[in-house]
Design a protein that fits this description.
One of its GO terms (biological process) is glutathione metabolic process. The chain is built from seven helices and four strands, in the order βαβββαααααα. By secondary structure, it is an alpha+beta fold.
């Protein structure tokens, strides 16, 4: 019995949905409003779940009554179950350093979002310096990766590929909608190709086609 609980948008839960899709696992995709109440039927929040938030954080993954949080921790756990880490310890190191670098960029965007009045100097640094530098670094990393194939580790998809694709697309879309400028990944074919490979993975493609519009 698995329940994934998050707000009614992609955010930090979408990569977990990708991993669960690839793992072929049936689960309850519970979506709540900012007060923790159900946003749509027939989805319901289990009785008392609002009091069972480890560290008061979403998303949460409930497994047979035990509740866990933190997106990357959940993904690593699921990746272990579904063999989505890579074949060696070095593979794991190689791919997960990309995850951490994506997180650095995501956290810069979140910091900007939470800045009162979107201070112009910080906004300019993010749009004109921080984001382009990070995206260029990702592009160079993909260019020089030692593995042939569409994914970070070649022909083998990992949760790191899913993390990369989900966050660059979703956070980039947020920036375009609310900040007037995105990551400009369309200028980087290697990045586009990696994201496309992830989104074309059959289970993920099926999920993208039927997921709620948010």
């Amino acid at each position: 019995n698995i329940r994934l609980t998050y707000f009614n948008y992609r955010g930090r839960a979408e990569v977990i949905r990708y991993v669960l899709a690839v793992g072929g696992v049936q689960y309850e995709d519970i979506r709540v409003d900012l007060e923790g109440k159900p946003t749509r039927d027939p989805v319901t929040v289990p009785q008392g779940s609002e009091r069972r938030l480890p560290f008061n954080q979403f998303p949460t993954l409930e497994i047979d009554g035990e509740v866990f949080c933190q997106t990357k921790s959940i993904c690593r756990y699921l990746a272990t179950l579904f063999d989505l880490h890579g074949e060696t310890a070095k593979d794991r190191l190689y791919s997960e350093m990309v995850v951490e670098c994506v997180d650095d960029l995501v956290n810069d965007v979140i910091k900007m979002r939470r800045t009162k009045n979107k201070e112009q100097r910080l906004f300019g640094e993010l749009i004109n310096t921080t984001a382009p530098r990070a995206i260029s670094s990702f592009d160079n990393f993909i260019k020089n990766k030692p593995h042939d194939g569409p994914y970070l580790l070649g022909k083998r998809i990992t949760w790191a590929d899913m993390y990369f694709a989900a966050f660059l697309v979703n956070v980039g879309g947020y920036m375009e909608t609310f900040m007037g400028g995105g990551f400009g990944i369309e200028k980087y074919p290697r990045i586009v190709n990696l994201i496309t490979a992830v989104e074309n993975q059959p289970a993920i493609a099926d999920w993208i086609q039927r997921r709620p519009v948010t």
